[in-house]
Amino acid sequence: TIDDKRETLIDAIRAQERIDTLLFCIAPVDAAVIDELPESCTLLQRLGTGLDNVDIPYAESKGLIVHNTPNYCLEEVAVQVTANLLALHRQFPAVEAALREGGWAAKPPIPIHRLSTQTLGIAGFGRIGRKLGEIMKLLVKRIIYFDTYPGEPVDWAESVSFDELLQTSDLISIHMPLTDETRDIINRDTLSKMKETALFVNAARGALVNPVDISDALNNGVIAGAALDVFEPEVLLADSPLREARNLILTSHTAWYSEEAMLDARVEAIESIVDHLDL
User: Fold this and answer.
1) Domains of the chain from N-terminus onward
2) Mind listing the pLDDT tens digit for each residue in 19-30?
3) Cα→Cα distances 118→195, 200, 274, Å
4) Is 234 tagged catalytic?
5) pTM, two decimal places
C-alpha cells in the first residue's frame, strides 16, 4: 500500500548517515517524508514522469528542488496509445468477444469510417502528446489539441478549447498532469460532450478519469469505446466497475515499458543528480 511505501522510505532515510539526493519512484514524498530528510539533502529526484506523489509546495518551502525524468518513455507511451486507438477504431474488443462466444460476422457491430476521415484530439500537448501527434498525423485527417500552456505551435495540429476538443474529436487521448484542477476531468459532464462514436484513451494518470462515470458512459452508449492503462488507486480494484464495462481495453500501467526505457530512466535520473551536485 501507499502507507507501506511511505514507511519503507522513511525507514531507509533514517538508516543513512548522509543524504544529498532522494531518489524515489512510487513512494509518496509528502511532509512526513520530507521532514525526515537531513539538511544535506537538496534534491528530490523522481524515477518517472509524474510528480503528483510529491508535495511540491512543501518541498519548495523547505528549499528542496524537485526533478523528474520526463523523456525516457515518450515513444513507448505514444506507441501504446496509438495501438489502443487503432484497436478501438477497428473494434477488436467487441469482435473478439463475439468470436469467443461462438459468433461470426464479417463486419464489426458498429459501422466504421476510414481512419483517414477522422479527427484526433489530444488533451495535453506536452512531450508525449506531441509524440503521439507525430505518429498519428500520417493516419488521420485532422489533429486538434488543448493545453493550458501549449508551447510552440506546429503546422500539423490546431489549438482549440477543451470543450471543442471533446465535441469535435472522433479519437481522444489525454496527456494532462494530475492536479487539483484536472482530477476527475473526465467525468459524466465531459463524457456527455463527446460524440457517441468517440473513442477515448488514458495512459497518463488514473485519477484524471472518474471510473464510475466512464463505466456508465461505455455501458450506456454515451461513447463507443475506451482504453485505460492507469487507475486510481494504482492497482485496479477487484470490484471496480471498469472490470465489467463494455468495449474497454484494460492494461496494467504498461505503457511506459521497454527495456530501453528502463535504462534511459535510470540514466536520465543519474545525469540529473550529477548535474545538480556538480560532480
Assistant:
1) 2-71+258-277 (3.40.50.720), 74-250 (3.40.50.720)
2) 999 999 989 999
3) 12, 13, 46
4) yes
5) 0.93
